[in-house]
Fold each of these.
Amino acid sequence: MLRLSSTVAITLAGLLMIHCKPAQSTLTVGQISNYNANSPDHILFLNFRISGGVGGREKVELLSASAGDGKMKDIARSVHFPYQIKAIARYSASAVEREMVFEHPLFKGREVSDPSGHMRQVEVKATEGNVLIRLQQHSGLNQLELFSVSPEKGTVKIYTLDFN
Amino acid sequence: MKSIFTTLIIICIASTAFSQHYQVDTLYKKGPLENRINIVILGDGFTQEQMPKFAAEARKFADFFLAYDPYTVYRDYFNFFAIRTPSKESGVSNPGTAPDAYKDQPVGNKDTFFGASFGHSIHRLVEVTKFDVLFNLMSTHLPAYDLIVVLVNTEYYGGSGGQIAVHTLNDAANTIGVHEIGHAFGRLSDEYWAGSIYGTEAANMTAISDPGSIRWKNWLNSPPVGIYKHGLEGDAAKWHKPTNGTCLMEYLDQQLCAVCREATVERLLENINPVEKIEPDTAASIDVTAGQAFKLGLLKPSRNTLQVQWHLNGMLLPFSGDEISLKGGEIPDSSALTATVFDTTTLSRRDDSRAFRSRAVSWSLKSSVPAVFKIVASSDSVCLRNEVALTAHGCAGALKWSTGETSKSIHVTPDQTTVYSCSCQVQGQSVKTAEISIHIMPLPNATATNGGPYLAGDTIKLAAAGGKTYMWRGPLFFASISPQVSIPNATLNQAGLYEVVVKDVNGCSKTAQTEVKVDPILSVPNDQDVLVSVSPNPARDYISIETKLGGKSNVKLYDQAGRELISDSFEKKTRLPLNLPSGIYLYRVSNGSRESTGKVAVQ
């Protein structure tokens, strides 16, 4: 049931987005699925599909968004591979804007181990992948900007999600 | 257009709503989600009939994790949950296309919940593919999770890291999850050399190699912790790690090293507050006229290292437990009671940890006993350049310090013994004034010297003075607590800055340094034809230097303080006039990359 609804949703989203600007979209936070207006703390789950290439050539699509109740802790794995997706939440009111750095789904480092306990890093390339962003909603949140980071092109803005 | 687009987006997002609910097993629930690290274990490739197997494997991993040091000490700081998500098919997809694919493993696709698969080009790289399914599941079932581990239902070895730790049920694969949590939670670097792009400053990786300032300097006296280069050449030689082959961040069959355990514990104590309950509530003033009990509910490590200190109006009380009772009729009005909780764990040797992670709870007290206005100092006698906290107690009105400040507490750093005063103005009452004298003790007159310069093989002699106790540190992890130190058989690596912390009878300390120079001894080949000859020795008016080495040679003469006195270039032979006081001098003769040094006595 889940897989069916997801497949349908992804297909529908893809069809709907064909005629829309790929670099910008708008989301009404209060209408995100599972958004509980009575909860004091909201965590937004945003699933982006990335394709096209690295270094600013990324095509970004918001595949799904949902919300949950609660507070996140500041626990996130550091990303050292030079190809990254950087996300910055923007606020209408004064708030600390913190960068969130994610692995680039099209070019990333992966740790491979063997049963003897040895490990090594390998480079993994893909033509399509997902960036999963979990975001604590603070008051005044009005935008989420995504940037492509690469040694060749530096930091290039690739997507803006407006919240209203 | 924008509104249409927005609507369409909302429709499409709404259509992905995750309506189905799956059973969440609570493996270990030790406390509220907001004050625990919440680890969620997911399973892939387990069918409905195999859910009991998944539940057992999830508990097995949780127990494995919680038995790992340092997590075992802080096992009550974690919650563990498992979500039962049955797959249509049992097992895992195996494309069988990688060169390192297991020959006996069946090839084929499996219809599983998260679409886990062995790698196409690197077989052991087992990853989930249905990220949208995983993400939606977490948003509806445990949105406030902290870490996710996915168990893949196969005995073949494999796994991967990243935002989500994935590994199979192979016995050797369990540590993949613990290693990945080391990255995600402890922010630890790998201790194997992963490549130049992974060179970064972290708790267990640094470009700094100075024993006195390296991140893990407090562990250098605890073998096997040391300063190890990641490699002998290139970028690997620029980065250092605390252990060599004995840490989980380097080999999966090892435990976390002391430095990694420290980083993990610090992260844990940064995120989790050991004070879980406070009685009575601190929101309002507590009337202690008839006496009152105060109690903390503490989250204790398995080896209870929590230390509680109680202060009444800034004065330390002789109680150290979780609970204290104040008798009625003794506590003045407008008093303040503070409980400070600090984890004294020896798993961390972080400097200033008490200041960084003490948790304080304060109650305002009221009483029928008249308030006593006074100033309490954190210490009334301190070493020069040390800071003192002054706090005014027993004032229900406006404060004004002799420094001009008006807050309840101030911090001062007097350079001489100083009297501070504070006034308390309560409306309708006369102004009260309190005073306190802060006595300043001078720092010791610390000195450090050495008898160099030395030649390789000499005995280095260090001397410190000016205090009662001494703590030396220097190159090659040198440490000593003696004021006079001898280091025999000096090597070139032992040259450098030696630092000594000199502490006097008052406990005041000052650091002094001395630079030790060690020159190499003959480094030319042991061949009679090319040896350098210096004569006469002892010398009076001149010395003659002769070599059979071809080409240009250089000679330099130094005094014992390392000052260069004479310099000359020559071929084969030279004669240097001497107009020097009697004493021992050092010469250095170089020819290309070859070098010869020695001592010459001048009479």
Amino acid sequence: MFITKDRIGAFLFLVFSCAYGVYAWQIPLLPTEQGIAVSASTLPKIYAVVGVVVSLLALAGSFLQQAARPQGGSGALALGRTVLLLVLMVLYALMLDPLGFLLATEVFLLAGYLLMGEYRPKVLFWASVPVVVVFWLIMTRVLGIYLAPGTLWS
Amino acid sequence: MIEGMLTGLSAALSWQGILYVMMGCLVGTFIGMLPGLGPITAIALMIPVTYSIDPSYGMILMAGVYYGAIFGGSTSSILINAPGVAGTVATSFDGYPLARKGQAGKALALAAYASFSGGTLAAVFLMVAAPLLAKVSLSFWSADYFALMVMGLTAIAAFSNRGQFLKAVMMTLLGIMLATVGIDPSSGAERFTFGSSDLLDGISFLLVAMSIFALSEALSGVLRPDHKKLPGAILNVASATARRVAARDGGHKKAPAPSSKMGDLRLSREEVKDVVPVIGRSSILGFLIGILPGAGATIASFLAYATERNLARGEKKKQFGQGSLRGLAAPETANNAACTGSFVPLLTLGIPGSGTTAVMLGALIAYGLQPGPLLMHDNPDVFWAVIMSMYVGNVVLLFLNLPMIPYIAKTLALPKPLLTVLILFFSLIGVYLVSFNTFDLYLMVGFAVLSLILRQLNFPMAPLILGFILGGMLESNFRRAMMIADGSIAFLWERPLTLCITLVSLALLLVPLMDFLRGLKRPAPEAELSDNL
């Protein structure tokens, strides 16, 4: 018995549908909904049941099908760089309010380029500073969108 | 109708209309050319821009991005055999061999002419079909709409790649489930908010679209740098074609690079005569396929290619796969015609037939417009402006892109690391500028991670966004229909029209399901085995 992508996917969806179902059954029935055919929880319950049935079907199908031996992954995954980019996005969200748009975006772009292997100072400068400034000018001066300077400075 | 057409024409031909069409076509062409990024990403990235402009111009801009992205995908298919979008894979079958023969200019010019002809002819069909269907759909009840939405959702699963049916169903369900988060609009009950006030309004469609397409496609490129983002079966066909071309060229496969020699852009009189009937046939085929929910540009281009190959005789047939002009014109015409055709269910029924039009539907709702049969009556300016802009867009694509082909081709050499980070930035800031809530950014990262995992497990993403956008409407129409039917589910078969749609939905669900069950006895297909961990 091999662990295939199909089986992992179906299993994950089964777990998700079960969890969704548990919460769907906890949706409170409001007094205004007494006696009506479709309440706030009706369709979520149906979705959960259908989700469980479909994932079980997919799971059963993946076991019944005569699968051949797995042939290994179809290419190396650059997991480290991807995770670092995801962390950088979280940090950007954290920095945006205290540092403000200009500085936080500048840091995000520079760190992103460096993470992606771009080290040439000229490229780093031209691909970050003008982009941030032009974008900020378009937003604030042309479209009239207020971008707060950052709670640290105000 | 004439009045509406003139209103639409005046909007499409105003300086703002032309500017937005040009902008859309250029941005779409640029993004469509980048392998891994498709029209959904291109449109999702433009949505924050459209929030600040008139809805008519917003839709004109997005329509321009749509067919620009398809044209851009053709350019990378022809020049480097790397289709930017799935709908242009068939273009590479004959477009790339033509480029290898030093006729890249001719191939690109033919692609532009074919796209223009397919798009323009389909716009004529759309102009006739959309108002007629809109009139018919005025007699639709909530029950019919509910049944239609179920049909739309089952169709996208039914038209998914072989072996992907259940995965597409799961993704559709996931989208519908995500749509239930927030305060229930009918009763006011909180659902799946986990006590967070940030989730009371539900999850915004822009956030989901940006995360699962723009963010996740850019991150997929980082995660698998050597892997083109295309559905399994299509990827196999594309690699098989690449192998055939490499074998013909003596077995060596050089790393694809943009061709520096474009060659002549002109077509001879005989060549034009040869492709004109192909363009006519493929336009009709593409438009009809585009109307079908879930089918779209990819299926249309493959079908048009196969049809023309079967119709060709003798020497002409042998040329297919080796640089046939017919083989290039057919998919190019059909994919653009299908893009236009996919606007028919969107504009008339408010039901998107593809992931791309689903994102457009979300944008329409965000503008405060009610897509459906009433759109033509309540907002004729938007309805007709979109249709009329298609003519302008096709002319722009032809006259703006044709002379710019050599320069556009150079964008393929832009450094990918910079583009990836910029796409991440534009996706994040696009959502932030709408809500000014950093919680949305954390949620985006969460969805991007989820989407990356699902992509690694070969789950299709388009059904998710379709389910997400249709989920809310599905529930409200179901409730209304149940209320009218006094709580009885019999509304599904009481009216002949509802019954017909219900039966079609059932057939769409049962046929691939039976195919799946029959397939259990067969060994797993090659495409699936290669996906094993």
